[in-house]
Amino acid sequence: MRYESPVAVDPSVLSRNVRGRFKMNCRIDAAPSASEIESDGSRFLVASTDDLLGLGSDARVKEAAQTALRKLGVGRTEGTRTQAELEARALSLFGAEAALVISHEEALLPLLPTWRMATEARGRRSLPESPQITTPEDAEAALGHPGMLGLILDAVHPLEGDLALTPRFAEVCQRRHASLVVIDDGLGVLGPTGGGAIEHLSLQTQVTLRILPLGGAIPGTGALVLGHPELLETLRGALPAPSAVSLAASARALDIAASEGARRARLFDVAQKLLTALKGGGFDTGPCVTPWIPVWLGDEALCEQWLAALADLGIACRGWLAGPRSRLLLAPPATLTDSQVGQIIEAFERLSRKLQVPEAGAIGKEMPVLARPGSYAMGAPAALHWTTVEPREQRPIEPEVIHTTPPSSSESLTLRELVSDAVETVTWRATSVGGAQLRRGAEALRTLIDRRRR
Question: N or C end: fewer C-beta atoms under 10 angstroms in the chain?
């Protein structure tokens, strides 16, 4: 008997907040090094990777993961020494008051009162309840509205290769006595010690909650959360941690990244060489100032054609398929040799004579200045299509609050109280945290926010 679902799934509902999709041009069967992969018996040069520093293939990182595997197995194990060591290492490296490692940043975001916090329209995380803004001026207006608590900001835009105007957004939050929550994908890449875009811009003291996703230049899973001790203690035990294997790999990678700054310097050298050649060859790389280098194609079918052609030349690359906003996404690893970078450049030059290359325009031909330590470039001049954003379905600045807390009492709650309430009522572990501990955490965060407002 054939089963038929009583409810038809509308694809338009599922894709409402989907702006595009990633596509890799080859299947990865093995990764003998950070610079090469094996696919169907062939070797490919890596032009696009998450492992930007090559630490995912580093023997020391692998050994740390294997040691944790032998001791603790593959499952999640709460309260391990490995977790404590990673959090302590993050504290010493990044100068935060407290650190907490969680399974994923998406596990934390539902605990925030997103219906009372604005988000930048270019952010990659889907927060449908949150009012969207595009400029610091928009943020000023949104945060001036009664009941708004703060701003959730993606500090790095990997799809465009630039940085958010975080200093200006931080100034707005200070003027409005609002909280600033930053998701920083620059961990391991940006900043003097690889602490991310916030370290690069010296804005540590102006951020209420700093979320550093793992799994990029620092291998592993989950995210490091930096912030006020009482707030993080409220969250501890309510959010799961990654496996000990992942934690051990991340901790070892953090140590290597901090002590071997030459890796980060080499990454920027590789990116500079590739970006300069692409821009000089007439490719539209937009506002890119980071090792995340997009190449604008503006057509989904053309993007797939380029991906297939690069695969034929032995270049592993990703694309962002998003209709008229489609592009190639390059992210070269620091382990590429000059010869290998030359091979990637040669492949693009060869294909540019066969395939369509959209006109970059005069504004896109200026030589790039990358956001190395000491250089505070946040974006290069770019054509209008890079900054034009098609916002997701937006809610008004004063949305109807659909929440477990009665509307009459929620109007006066602070960010700290709403987070504590979410921990207590939404997550299955709230009861194990203990009501007294939650109240202590809530009181501490209320004092912190009230002090900031004064």
Answer: N
